[in-house]
Amino acid sequence: MGERDKADDMKNRRTNLEALPPEPDKPESERLDAENGNATGRQPSPHKPDVRLGREVQARIGQQLRALYDDVVNQGVPQHINDLIRKLSEQD
Amino acid sequence: MKLDPAIREQVLGTVPSLRAFAISLCGNIDRADDLVQETLLRALSHIDSFEPGTNMPAWLFTILRNLFRSEYRKRRREVEDADGRYAETLKSHPEQTGRVEFEEFRTALAKLPQDQREALILVGASGFSYEDAASICGCAVGTIKSRVNRARTRLADLLAIDSVDDFGPDRATRAVLAGGGRN
């Protein structure tokens, strides 16, 4: 099935998050950390703001993010959307 | 418009991921499906502007994001979703993570600023390259990288995990440390 292939294709590309180099632009990230902290009324992070995220933490965030997303992806194409596309694609 | 069957299959193949992205933007499955439908109507009526051989998912995601943004500006108050109706939209929780951990993650994700959440999802879940994500969001590649980094840092912070002490000082301990505590 073409649909399935495309979905698999997208899954196979999901390696970008882990490949990200840590903290490329510290100044901006620190600045925004401060903004975010103020916005929620929190004190600035108790640990150093430039603490590098370990691989394990990155992997966990990536895994949970994909799990959440894939929960929806695995629902496939809803019938009404499938019908809509087929109907529209037959029209002149 | 007599759509090329190959193009139609590309569109259909993108729908599941497009929905997942829409839900992450809207936080509401009904609105997300409306948004997906609107995106497809728009896309198929402008299919001539899609260049065959280029990235269909990126094209559709761009249309969906633009539609969402223009609508979002009008309905900002309705859309704000701090309580995370996102959770209600999901029929089940992933098997591989515990219920509590999953809920914590979902809640933390919902607290991220829109720009950061969308960048993180495009790169970390949808599997787009930084270049494609930048094109979808209409910004520089460096901006996407920066948003993804901030998103991850913020998530780790919200989930009280970092590289030094993965399961280390709990929030109470941290609060004492942060507040200076009693010396």
Entry summary:
With 92 residues, chain A is mainly alpha-helical.
Please describe what this structure looks like:
The complex is a heterodimer of chains A (92) and B (183). With 92 residues, chain A is mainly α. In chain A, 65% of the residues lie in helices and 0% in strands. Chain A contains five helices and no strands. Chain A starts with a helix and ends with a helix. Mean pLDDT of chain A is 64; it is low at 6-15 and 18-51. Helices cover 68% and strands 0% of the residues of chain B. In chain B, helix 1 (5-26) packs antiparallel against helix 2 (29-45), helix 3 (56-74) runs parallel beside helix 8 (130-137) and helix 7 (114-124) crosses helix 9 (141-158). Chains A and B meet through helix 1, helix 3, helix 4 and helix 5 of A and helix 1, helix 2, helix 6, helix 7 and helix 9 of B.
Average pLDDT rating of chain B: 81
**Which pair has the most extensive contact?**
A-B, 69 and 72 residues
Mean pLDDT of chain A: 64
Assembly status: heterodimer
By DSSP, the count of extended strands of chain B is: 0
Q: What characteristic shape of chain B results from the CA principal axes?
A: globular
